């Protein structure tokens, strides 16, 4: 595995800090196809990690394992030190299609992520404010645009203080302009709320723009890792940004062999 | 979207035209009153029978019969549809048998039903129950099976328990299909009621019309037929209202 450090390695925050997410020797097969091949991964609290790779490289499966929708054939997963067994409230997954309930209002949908208590309802209202859709609280999802629906889904994922937010190509279905807006929104909220996040994407530029660290996956293995220490908000036309993007893109397309 | 002013009148043009020409043809003797009494004569028969108390009595009997049958058959169909939709085990056990029985027209069971229950109230109820059971069963099952699996997955990620999953995702997701089943069941319900009440009965609208036939009261026979049309339309409108309310989140129903 190639590790790319642009600057001197950041002193990994205090030795002994419990990782927010910890994967040890994770293996997963569907029939005879190996989807994940003994993956090891540690994510520190508050870190934004991006995983890029071609479709079918196992990156989405990794998220489904962390959130407990599927179970690993081998290895162990820990969230904040506690082992994952089945769906749990420790991690939140945001899907590529917003997966909003069409029969509930925007606010009710966000409330799904919070506890059904007065406190929970307040948290839902705040989360909706965070994504700038508090004016649409009583609307049905069917009248929202694609970008607005994804913002509601984001608010739902944020409504409950989950330790880890998993984003499974959340912006894949949006048009280019809306996608840029959403990337900025996610970055702003992340900078303010400082949650741990894993962003799975096929868009290398998105990974370089948002993540502290980016992994490249191929055929169920992590083949490369790059730390991204550019200052935020990132200048997408700076030399460092472009170099990094091209390097990662090369790895995604050709692998790390040559 | 604003509808043009005539959209409310349009559906009524044909019925009104038909009734007027019928009335005129009867009035000027083109149609014999023995064959087809005029619409006004039918209305008069309705008023006459209401005054004697006959019509309200028969109506109440028919309503009660239809209602009880619908509640029993509908509940059974809904529950079985629910179980078979939610549990693979239950579906493998019951579904193919139910599909087999479904292909027997329930009215074909009349001779057997009379042998089993005689010609009393239970025979009629049995027919209505079997009639409404299948459409509600099939559509409930279909509705539950076709709920978007991604929504269920989302619910699991957000920590919903089995009960919450059911009442927040599965039931609302299946509702439009269940209501289609209900509308269809209501149609079958009236049909079965008519047939059941015509065969053997001493009350209800079906009996009223059959009885009137014996006395050559064509106006009362027509009144009975009109009542069925009206009741059918009424039941359909009520379910449409129910749809508009339960499915108000869906742009198709707004």
Topology of this protein?
The complex is a heterodimer of chains A (258) and B (254).
Chain A: E1 2-4, E2 21-30, E3 33-43, E4 48-52, H1 59-67, E5 74-79, E6 82-83, E7 91-94, H2 106-111, H3 118-130, H4 146-159, E8 164-168, H5 176-193, E9 196-201, H6 204-210, E10 213-218, E11 221-227, H7 239-254
Parallel strand pairs in A: 1-11, 4-9, 4-10, 7-8, 8-9
Antiparallel strand pairs in A: 2-3, 2-5, 5-6, 10-11
Chain B: H1 10-27, H2 39-52, H3 54-86, H4 88-102, H5 110-117, H6 121-145, H7 149-157, H8 162-199, H9 205-214, H10 218-246
Helix pairs in contact in B: 2-10, 3-4, 3-6, 3-8, 3-9, 5-6, 6-8, 8-9, 8-10, 9-10
Please give the alpha-carbon distance between the first and last residues of chain A: 13 Å
What percent of residues of chain B are in strands? under 5%
> In the residues of chain B, how many domains can be counted?
1
Oligomer: heterodimer
Mean pLDDT of chain A: 86
* CATH-assigned homologous superfamily of chain B: MetI-like
Helix and strand composition category of chain B: mainly alpha
Report the strand count of chain A.
Answer: 11
CATH class category of the domain at 19-90 and 200-254 in chain A: Alpha Beta
Please state how the strands of the largest beta sheet of chain A are arranged side by side: 1-11-10-4-9-8-7
SS element count, helices of chain B: 10
Helix amount of chain B, in percent? over 70%
Helix content of chain A: 25-40%
Mean pLDDT of chain B: 90
SSE pattern of chain A, N- to C-terminal: EEEEHEEEHHHEHEHEEH
């Amino acid at each position: 595995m190639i590790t790319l450090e642009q600057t001197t390695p950041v002193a990994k925050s205090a030795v002994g800090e419990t990782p927010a997410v910890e994967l040890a020797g994770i293996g997963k097969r569907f029939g005879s196809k190996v989807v994940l091949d003994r993956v090891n991964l540690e994510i520190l609290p508050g870190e934004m990690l991006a995983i890029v790779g071609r479709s079918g490289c196992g990156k989405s499966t990794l998220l489904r394992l962390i959130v407990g929708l599927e179970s690993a054939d081998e290895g162990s997963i820990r969230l904040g030190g506690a082992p994952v067994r089945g769906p749990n409230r420790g991690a939140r997954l945001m899907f590529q299609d917003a997966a909003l309930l069409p029969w509930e209002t925007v606010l009710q949908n966000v409330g799904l992520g919070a506890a059904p208590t007065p406190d929970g309802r307040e948290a839902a209202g705040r989360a909706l404010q965070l994504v700038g859709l508090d004016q649409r609280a009583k609307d049905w999802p069917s009248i929202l645009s694609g970008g607005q629906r994804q913002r509601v889904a984001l608010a739902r994922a944020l409504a409950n203080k989950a330790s880890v937010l998993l984003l499974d190509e959340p912006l894949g279905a949006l048009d280019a302009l809306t996608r840029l807006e959403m990337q900025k929104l996610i970055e702003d909220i992340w900078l303010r709320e400082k949650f741990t996040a894993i962003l799975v994407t096929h868009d290398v530029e998105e990974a370089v723009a948002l993540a502290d660290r980016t992994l490249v996956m191929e055929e169920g293995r992590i083949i490369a890792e790059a730390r991204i220490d550019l200052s935020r908000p990132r200048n997408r036309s700076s030399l460092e940004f472009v170099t990094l993007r091209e390097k990662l893109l090369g790895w995604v397309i050709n692998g790390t062999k040559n | 979207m604003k509808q043009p002013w005539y959209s409310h009148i349009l559906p009524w043009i044909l019925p009104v035209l038909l009734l007027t020409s019928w009335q005129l043809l009867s009035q000027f003797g083109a149609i014999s009153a023995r064959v087809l009494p005029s619409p006004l004569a039918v209305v008069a028969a309705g008023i006459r029978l209401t005054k004697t108390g006959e019509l309200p009595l028969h109506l109440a009997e028919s309503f009660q019969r239809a209602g009880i049958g619908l509640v029993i058959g509908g509940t059974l169909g809904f529950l079985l549809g629910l179980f078979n939709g939610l549990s693979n085990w239950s579906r493998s056990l019951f579904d193919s048998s139910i599909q087999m029985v479904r292909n027997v027209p329930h009215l074909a069971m009349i001779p057997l039903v009379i042998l089993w229950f005689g010609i009393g109230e239970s025979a009629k109820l049995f027919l209505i129950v079997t009639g409404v059971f299948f459409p509600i069963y099939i559509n409930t099952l279909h509705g539950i099976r076709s709920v978007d699996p991604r929504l269920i997955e989302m619910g699991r990620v957000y920590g919903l328990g089995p009960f919450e999953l059911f009442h927040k995702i599965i039931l609302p997701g299946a509702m439009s299909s269940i209501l289609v089943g209900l509308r269809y069941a209501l149609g079958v319900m009236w049909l079965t009621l008519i047939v059941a009440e015509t065969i053997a009965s001493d009350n209800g609208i079906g009996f009223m019309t059959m009885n009137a036939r014996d006395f050559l009261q064509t106006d009362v026979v027509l009144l009975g037929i009109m009542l069925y049309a009206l009741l059918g339309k009424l039941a359909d409108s009520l379910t449409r209202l129910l749809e508009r309310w339960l499915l108000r989140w869906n742009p198709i129903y707004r």
